């Protein structure tokens, strides 16, 4: 396979896409741009990612999430906040860091969505949360979109504490107005002397509201909060000291994972993950065998397939990945028929009985349509699969390798079904249906409406409409676009799949892993 012309063609095309992914991610890594970063450094401050790098354990991985949040919108790519899971003193923590180089770290609607997703991941996977705070508060031109829902952020901090998931705030700069409640509602608060400014209303607002003259330090400085108000638990000498104290706090949390530990003597895949660049066609219309992907991501390339002769356009089976047991469902030929749906429902139930997490590898155009299949019960069989996915209690991980269209996205545990993590390969697409199919449906409906009204059908106008719809759906189904809308947790290089899934499996085992003890009614 790896010596074929098709493999080389796929590999070259995928390398181009991977290079473009790096270029798109660079937009987020740039923050507010070189001038803003230089200005920030001249003030003696670190950037958000520099703070994270110093906070996490040396040579440990940082699983950054939603890097392309806001892609395709008027907002800065990344949403002026960096989120991800990092290891601090051996403990996996959710880290949420304001990016002060982008409009002072102020929060816009993308910031909010990205922060809410990070909080959801922390809650579902039982992670401590560390907020690296330096924010000017709400981005005032968008206040109508963030004021009301923004309160959920503070509510989440109190719920985390009640759930015995520690929350830590390291305050490096401004934490103003509603933002003052981030340290106010955190379990532990560290403030940088001479840098942190925490107040409900700054000097100008206090002057307008009360007529009182005040300055930043006496109103909300770190030293005042450490010595007078008691809001600061620790007063740090500088940013590096704040991070040192933050690591010290995590070290004393006495944190333990509640899920089962992985095997430690697992083997790397026998088949090279580098070959994922070429074994999968970049043309989504060309089917491929997902076993070629599975063998390049699981331990020892060992995969015990379940029901291999039945429902063959969906591959199911058992494996281990970085020592963790996992059940895998992978689309083979795109379309899901009744047999595939029934096979999936049974397999998901078995995984729940065995308390085994599930990995969904998407490449589906959806459930089969047509008179024969409707009469054969495709709706109720698809409903069985979706019922099994919806009521499954074991953690789900989803990777969109190729297409993820229609209800097939639902049956394969798409975003609406709350997988613990969901990523897309660069080049993947998600939509109601393919661009040509959707445009064709609109054309048929328009043609039927014209015939029913007894008016001539404008073929030229129809061609223009179809072309416009195809272009729109093509753009809106791109992985960059859907990731920009927070419909996944990031776009990844296919070669990174094993590493990313392994990190996710480690994270989900912070919480107990337990399958469903009952299901709703299955239509048989």
From TrEMBL:
Q: Where is the CoA carboxyltransferase C-terminal domain?
A: 269-524
Q: Which residues form the CoA carboxyltransferase N-terminal domain?
A: 14-265
InterPro entries from the entry? AcCoA_carboxyl_beta (IPR034733), ClpP/crotonase-like_dom_sf (IPR029045), COA_CT_C (IPR011763), COA_CT_N (IPR011762), MCCB/AccD1-like (IPR045190)
Question: What's a Pfam family this protein contains?
Answer: Carboxyl_trans
Q: Which PROSITE patterns match?
A: COA_CT_CTER, COA_CT_NTER
Q: What is this protein called?
A: Acetyl-CoA carboxylase carboxyltransferase subunit
Name the source organism: Actinoplanes palleronii
């Amino acid at each position: 396979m790896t010596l074929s012309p098709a493999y080389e063609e796929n590999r070259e095309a995928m390398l181009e896409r991977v290079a473009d992914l790096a270029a798109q991610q660079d937009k987020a890594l740039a923050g507010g741009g070189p001038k803003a970063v230089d200005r920030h450094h001249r003030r003696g401050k670190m950037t958000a990612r520099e703070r994270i790098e110093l906070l996490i354990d040396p040579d440990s991985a940082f699983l950054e999430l939603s890097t392309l949040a806001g892609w395709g919108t008027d907002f800065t790519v990344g949403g002026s906040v960096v989120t991800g899971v990092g290891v601090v003193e051996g403990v996996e923590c959710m880290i949420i860091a304001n990016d002060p180089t982008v409009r002072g770290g102020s929060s816009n609607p993308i910031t909010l969505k990205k922060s809410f997703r990070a909080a959801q991941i922390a809650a579902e996977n039982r992670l401590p949360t560390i907020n690296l705070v330096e924010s000017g508060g709400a981005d005032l031109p968008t206040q109508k979109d963030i004021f009301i829902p923004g309160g959920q952020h503070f509510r989440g901090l109190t719920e985390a504490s009640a759930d015995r998931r520690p929350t830590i705030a390291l305050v490096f700069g401004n934490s103003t107005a509603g933002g003052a409640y981030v340290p106010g509602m955190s379990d532990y608060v560290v403030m940088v002397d001479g840098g942190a400014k925490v107040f409900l209303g700054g000097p100008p607002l206090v002057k307008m509201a009360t007529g009182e003259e005040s300055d930043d330090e006496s109103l909300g400085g770190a030293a005042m909060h450490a010595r007078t108000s008691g809001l600061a638990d620790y007063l740090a000498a500088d940013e590096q000291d704040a991070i040192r104290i933050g690591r010290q706090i995590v070290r004393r949390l006495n944190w333990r994972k509640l899920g089962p530990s992985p095997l430690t003597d697992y083997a790397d895949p026998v088949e090279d993950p580098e070959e994922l660049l070429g074994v999968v066609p970049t043309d989504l219309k060309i089917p491929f065998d997902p076993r070629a992907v599975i063998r390049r991501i699981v331990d020892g390339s060992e995969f015990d397939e379940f029901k291999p002769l039945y429902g063959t356009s969906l591959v199911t089976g058992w494996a281990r990945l970085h020592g963790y047991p996992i059940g895998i469902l992978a689309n083979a030929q795109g379309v899901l028929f009744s047999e595939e749906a029934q096979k999936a429902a049974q397999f998901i139930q078995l995984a729940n009985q065995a308390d085994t997490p599930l990995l969904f590898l998407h490449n589906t155009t959806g459930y089969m349509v047509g008179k024969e299949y409707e009469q054969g019960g495709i709706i109720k069989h698809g409903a069985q699969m979706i019922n099994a996915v919806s009521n499954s209690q074991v953690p789900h991980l989803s990777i969109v390798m190729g297409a993820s269209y229609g209800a097939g996205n639902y049956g394969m545990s798409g975003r609406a079904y709350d997988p613990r993590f969901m990523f897309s390969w660069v080049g993947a697409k998600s939509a109601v249906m393919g661009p040509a199919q959707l445009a064709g449906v609109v054309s048929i409906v328009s043609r039927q409406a014209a015939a029913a009204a007894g008016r001539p059908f404008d073929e030229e106008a129809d061609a223009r409409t179809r072309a416009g719809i195809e272009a729109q759906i093509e753009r809106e189904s791109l992985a960059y676009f859907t990731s920009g809308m927070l419909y996944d947790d990031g776009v990844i290089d296919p070669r990174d799949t094993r590493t990313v899934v392994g990190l996710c499996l480690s994270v989900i085992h912070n919480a107990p892993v337990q399958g469903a003890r009952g299901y709703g009614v299955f239509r048989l």
